[in-house]
Write a structure and sequence with these properties.
This protein has helices spanning 12-27, 41-46, 56-60, 71-100, 112-119, 152-184, 193-197, 261-270, 305-309, 321-328, 343-353, 366-376, 380-392, 395-408, and strands at residues 3-7, 31-36, 50-53, 104-108, 125-129, 203-205, 222-224, 248-252, 277-281, 297-300, 312-317, 334-336, 356-358. With 420 residues, the chain is α/β, with parallel strands linked by helices. A seven-stranded parallel β-sheet has the order 3-2-1-4-5-6-7, sandwiched between helices. A six-stranded parallel β-sheet has the order 10-9-8-11-12-13, with helices on both faces. Helix 5 (112-119) links the parallel strand 4 and strand 5. The longest helix is centred in the middle third of the chain and has 33 residues, at 152-184. The relative contact order is 0.13.
Length: 420
C-alpha cells in the first residue's frame, strides 16, 4: 500500500472535498497524510489520517475579497492571496515530503507554490480541483465572469474581449507573483493558470457532465469524477429539524466570509407566507439575520446539510460548488445568487444545464428571489438529469482509481530517500 500526501488550501470548503477522496483511498489500505488549515487537523485525525497544519503564515494570508466593490477587484485579491502563499508553500511541502516520504502527492489546485514544488520531484503527483478549474477549452469563454458559451463570430469577438481583461487582472499578476518562485526552483515561467495546472500528469475535477458544459474538452489528463460530497462524521442534526412539517427550502451562504448575508435576509422576506419552511444556514456567522426569522423559517450557523436535504424541494445558494453539487446530486433544483469567486461560473452552469435558476446579486430583491425560487422548483427533471450524470462519473472510486494508476505507473523508488 502507498503513502498519500495531500496538500490542501487552508479552507474547509477545500478540505471537505479532499476528505471525500482521501476516505476512499484510506478504505483501500493506503496511508493518508494531510497538510491543511489548523481547524481541520482534528477532523483529519478523527478520520484516521495523519495530519498537521500548514505553515501558519500561509493560513494567515486570507483574501478580504468580501470588501471588494467589483468582480474584477475580487479576482485581483484572489491572485494576490494565492501568489503570496506560493513561496511559503514550496518550503512547507518540501518539509512534509521529508517527514512522511510519500509515494504520491495530491495537491490542491489553489496551491500554486505547492504545485510548482511538486513539479520538481520525481514523486508521482496529481492536482485535485474541488471547484471548476482554471482550464481553457475550445468554445468556452474565459474563466471568471460567468459568460454563457456563445458560438459563432460574435461569441469569439466577445470572448477575445473578455480575455483581454482577464489577462490584465488575472494572468499578469499571476506571472508576476509566480515567476520568482518558479525561477528559484529552476522551472520555466507559466503564461497563466491553465499553463500551470497542465504541468501536472493528471488533474482530478470534482464535477461531471451535463453540469459541466457538454462541449467541454479539457484533454485526456483531466478526469471528471463527479462531486466530492463529504460531511464530518458524527454530525447530528438539531432536534428542531424533526418538528418541521412543511417542505423545506434550504438557504445557505459561504463558509468563507463574503457579502452574501443579504441572500439569507432576502430569502426570509421572499418566502414569508409561502407553503414551505425556510432553513437558513450561515456558517460564516448568523449576525443580525436571526432577528429577521419569520414564522416559517429557522436561522442557524453550521448544521449538517444531508438531514435538511432529505426534505428539501429547493436550495437557495450563493453558488458555492460544494452545496450546489450536493443538492443536484440528490436531484434537488437550485436557485443561485452568485456574489464572487467561482460562483459566477457555477451559477452559469446551473442555468445552462436547466437544473435551476441564476439571479445576479446586483438584482437581488425579495420579489425577484421569490420568482426565481418558484421557477427553480419546476426544474426537477433537469436536476435529476444532472444527478444521473454525477452518478455515472464514478465518484471517489473513480478518483482513487486514477490516483492508484499514477502510483502504479511510477518507477520503483528507494523510500529511504524522501526527496528522490
Amino acid at each position: 500500500m502507498a503513502v498519500v500526501l495531500a496538500y490542501t488550501s487552508p479552507a474547509l470548503g477545500h478540505l471537505f472535498p479532499f476528505c471525500a477522496l482521501l476516505t476512499e483511498l484510506s478504505s483501500r489500505g493506503h496511508e493518508v497524510q494531510v497538510r491543511t488549515l489548523a481547524s481541520g487537523v482534528h477532523l483529519c485525525r478523527r478520520l484516521g489520517f495523519g495530519a498537521h497544519r500548514v505553515d501558519p503564515r500561509i493560513e494567515a494570508l486570507q483574501s478580504d475579497d468580501w470588501t471588494a466593490g467589483s468582480a474584477l477587484t475580487v479576482v485581483g485579491k484572489t491572485v494576490e492571496t494565492l501568489t503570496g502563499r506560493a513561496g511559503l508553500e514550496v518550503a512547507d511541502l518540501r518539509t512534509a515530503i521529508e517527514e512522511v516520504a510519500p509515494d504520491v502527492l495530491l495537491v490542491d489546485a489553489n496551491c500554486w507554490g505547492a504545485i510548482s514544488a511538486a513539479e520538481t520531484t520525481t514523486i508521482p503527483w496529481l492536482i485535485f480541483s474541488p471547484f471548476i478549474p482554471y482550464l481553457e477549452s475550445p468554445g468556452s469563454p474565459p474563466f471568471g465572469p460567468g459568460f454563457a458559451p456563445k458560438p459563432g463570430w460574435l461569441g469569439r469577438l466577445r470572448d477575445n474581449g473578455a480575455r483581454t481583461v482577464t489577462r490584465a487582472v488575472f494572468d499578469r499578476p499571476l506571472r508576476r507573483g509566480l515567476d520568482p518562485v518558479r525561477a528559484a526552483l529552476g522551472l520555466p515561467a507559466v503564461r497563466n493558470a491553465d499553463d500551470l495546472l497542465r504541468r501536472a500528469p493528471a488533474i482530478l475535477v470534482a464535477t461531471a457532465k451535463p453540469f459541466e458544459y457538454p462541449h467541454t474538452d479539457w484533454g485526456d489528463s483531466v478526469h471528471l469524477i463527479g462531486p466530492a460530497v463529504f460531511e464530518p462524521p458524527g454530525s447530528v442534526p438539531p432536534g428542531w429539524l424533526r418538528g418541521i412539517e412543511r417542505p423545506v427550502v434550504l438557504v445557505t451562504t459561504s463558509s468563507v466570509r463574503q457579502a452574501d448575508t443579504a441572500l439569507a435576509d432576502a430569502a426570509l422576506r421572499a418566502l414569508d407566507g409561502e407553503p414551505v419552511h425556510v432553513v437558513a444556514t450561515l456558517p460564516a456567522g448568523v449576525g443580525d439575520v436571526a432577528q429577521e426569522a419569520t414564522r416559517n423559517a429557522s436561522v442557524t450557523g453550521f448544521i449538517p446539510h444531508s438531514a435538511v436535504l432529505e426534505r428539501a424541494v429547493c436550495v437557495v445558494t450563493h453558488g458555492g460548488m460544494g452545496i450546489t453539487q450536493k443538492a443536484l446530486s440528490r436531484g434537488i433544483p437550485v436557485c443561485t445568487v452568485p456574489f464572487g469567486r467561482d460562483q459566477f461560473e457555477v451559477a452559469r452552469r446551473v442555468h445552462i444545464a436547466g437544473c435551476g435558476t441564476r439571479l445576479p446579486a446586483r438584482r437581488l430583491t425579495a420579489a425577484r428571489l421569490r420568482d426565481s425560487v418558484k421557477s427553480a422548483m419546476t426544474m426537477t427533471a433537469g436536476a435529476r438529469a444532472v444527478a444521473a450524470g454525477f452518478a455515472a462519473a464514478g465518484g471517489m472510486r473513480h478518483g482513487a482509481d486514477v490516483v492508484e494508476r499514477q502510483i502504479a505507473g511510477s518507477r520503483p523508488r528507494d523510500r529511504a530517500d524522501p526527496r528522490r
